[in-house]
Amino acid sequence: xxxxxxxxxxxxxxxxxxxxxxxxxxxxxxxxxxxxxxxxxxxxxxxxxxxxxxxxxxxxxxxxxxxxxxxxxxxxxxxxxxxxxxxxxxxxxxxxxxxxxxxxxxxxxxxxxxxxxxxxxxxxxxxxxxxxxxxxxxxxxxxxxxxxxxxxxxxxxxxxxxxxxxxxxxxxxxxxxxxxxxxxxxxxxxxxxxxxxxxxxxxxxxxxxxxxxxxxxxxxxxxxxxxxxxxxxxxxxxxxxxxxxxxxxxxxxxxxxxxxxxxxxxxxxxxxxxxxxxxxxxxxxxxxxxxxxxxxxxxxxxxxxxxxxxxxxxxxxxxxxxxxxxxxxxxxxxxxxxxxxxxxxxxxxxxxxxxxxxxxxxxxxxxxxxxxxxxxxxxxxxxxxxxxxxxxxxxxxxxxxxxxxxxxxxxxxxxxxxxxxxxxxxxxxxxxxxxxxxxxxxxxxxxxxxxxxxxxxxxxxxxxxxx
Length: 467
Description:
CATH class of the largest domain: Alpha Beta
Strand content: 15-25%
Helix content: 40-55%
Low-confidence stretches: none
Number of helices: 19
Distance between the termini: 58 Å
C-alpha cells in the first residue's frame, strides 16, 4: 500500500512498490517498458565487440560478464550469441531483483542449453558474495542505475537540506499506466564531513541534487576486489552538475519504475577522485540518455583509447535513429529497407517495423523474395521470444511464409507455440502453411480448430472453401 507520510527519499516505500509492480505483474510487466533503445542486436553486438577487444588485454584471465537487471533478457541473449561467435571464453551472469522473472526467462526455449548463471538479488551487496569477482569483470547496466534508491538534497539559504518523499494512493491503473502523485519537501539535516565534501561542487545549484548512493556502493564492491572492471552503462540522466533536477521530472511511470535521472556527474567524480586505474568515456546524443563506459582497476590509457575508437565509428545512436525515423522517409526503396535491417545487425525489431513495407513489395514484385530471404534467415538465427515482443513473432512468421520458408515457419511455431497467449493466431498461420504445403487434410483440421475459437474467422472460411 502506498504510504502518504513523508520519508527520506533514500528509504521511501516507493522503492519497494517498484519491485512489487514487477513481481505482481509477471512477464507482462515488460509490455509497457520501452526496450528498443538498448535491447537490440546492434547494441549488444557493439558492446560484445568492445568486450572482445578489451579482454585481449587480459590474456589468461577469466572473463566475467555480469548483466545487472535482466528485464526481458534480450540484451543478455544477443550479447551471449555474439561473444560465442567471437570465441570468447566467458561466464555470463544474469541478475534481477525479481526472482519470478528470472525463473520465467530461464525456462524459455532460447535459453535452453546455454551456460548461464541466474542470480537473484535483494540488493547489490549480493553480487560480491556470489562470485567474489574472480577474473576481469564486464558489467552491463542498461537502465539499472535509475532503478536504484537515491538520496536527495537541496541547497537552501546556504545550507543543505535532505529530500523527503510522500506518495498519494493510486488513482487508477489502466493498461499498465500507474497514477501515483509524488510530493517532495526539504528538511534541515546534519551532514558528515564526507557528505559535505561530496555535495560541495553543487553548492548554489538551484535544483535538487540526486546522490546515487546505491551506485556508489556497487562501484566500491568492484573497486575493492582489485580486479579490473569495465562498466557499460546505458541510462537516462545528466552529466553536468547544473542540470540535475528531480523536483519537476521525478515520477512514477507507466512501467512501474521510478523515472529517475541518474547523476552521472557525481558518479564520474567518485570514479576519478576515489579510485585508482580509472577511465571514463561518455557519449550523449539522444535527449537525456547516455552511454557511459568506465573502467576501474585498469591500465586506463590503452583501454580508454580502445573504447574511444569504438565510439568514433557507427554508434548506437546512429542505428537507433534508423529504427525511429525510417518510416518518415517520403520514398523508401526496397534496397533502403534491406539496408536498415543489415545496419541493425539483423534485429527482428527492425525487420518487424518494416514488415508491412516488405510484404507489399513482395506481393508486387515476387522476384524480390530472393533478396529478402537470406536477410530474413539471418534475422531468425538469434530470434528472441518474450511476450513483450509478441508482434515481432507474428511479423517474422508472416514474412517467412511469404518467402516460402514453410518448414522454418513450422519450426518457429512449434518452438514457441506453448507460450503464445492466442492459439487462434497460431492456428491461422499454421493452417496457411499446411495449405501451401499441399496438405489439405491437415490444413482443414487446423482451420476448423481456429473456427471453434473464433466462429467469425473469415480467413478460415476462405481456406476451407478453397480446400
